[in-house]
Amino acid sequence: MSALKAGDAFPSDVSFLYVKPTPETSDVLACGIPTKFDASAGMNLHPISLPTTYLRDQLANHVSTTTEFANKKAVLVSVPGAFTPTCQVTHVTGYINKLKELKAKGVDTIVVIAFNDPFVQAAWGKANGIKDESIIFATDNEAAFSKTLGWTLGPRTARYAIVVDHGKVVYAEKEPAGDVGVSGVDAVLAVL
């Protein structure tokens, strides 16, 4: 696969891991159980790949799946890392601050992915006051999806945004290193 562009179908077999917010996991230090967030429209589900034997053994029977982008308008935002300066101060905060505007333009799902594990992503969401699934903080495990697009920064996920409307890509832009422009919330709002 290569970089996505407007008009492409969102690829099949794309999934991310996230910790579903629950009352039991509302504390920033609570870990929870990772869930497979299946972003693909009409895809075949495959077993998830967890980073360590401990996680595979502990979570093998606890991971559920959902299909998310098939019949929704979704915004997928990728950042190099949780709690990093540009990602925190400029990029993700914009989406949090303009969540109501995104929803008013018909966005059903917002997913923020990074190279980090699902526990760090969950803590990042909670540290930003996200205690529900209004914005899902997920992991692109080993940057697998980002690598298929060629959108990485070394081993990490690059900074980009993709808008998917009922399985079809309507916007897909990757940033030059260190910038927040085409992947920022204002650029995304402009195409909705």
From TrEMBL:
Family matches, as InterPro entries: PRX5-like, Redoxin, Thioredoxin-like_sf, Thioredoxin_domain
SUPFAM superfamilies, alphabetized: Thioredoxin-like
Signal peptide: none
GO MF annotation: an example: thioredoxin peroxidase activity
GO cellular component, one term: peroxisome
Active-site positions on this chain: 87
Segments forming domain Thioredoxin: 39-192
Single GO biological process annotation from the record: hydrogen peroxide catabolic process
CDD domains associated with the record: PRX5_like
UniProt keyword list: Antioxidant, Oxidoreductase, Peroxidase, Redox-active center
Similarity section: Belongs to the peroxiredoxin family. Prx5 subfamily.
Record PANTHER family: PEROXIREDOXIN, PEROXIREDOXIN-5, MITOCHONDRIAL
UniProt function note: Thiol-specific peroxidase that catalyzes the reduction of hydrogen peroxide and organic hydroperoxides to water and alcohols, respectively. Plays a role in cell protection against oxidative stress by detoxifying peroxides.
Name of the protein described by the UniProt record: Thioredoxin domain-containing protein
The organism of origin for this protein: Xylaria flabelliformis
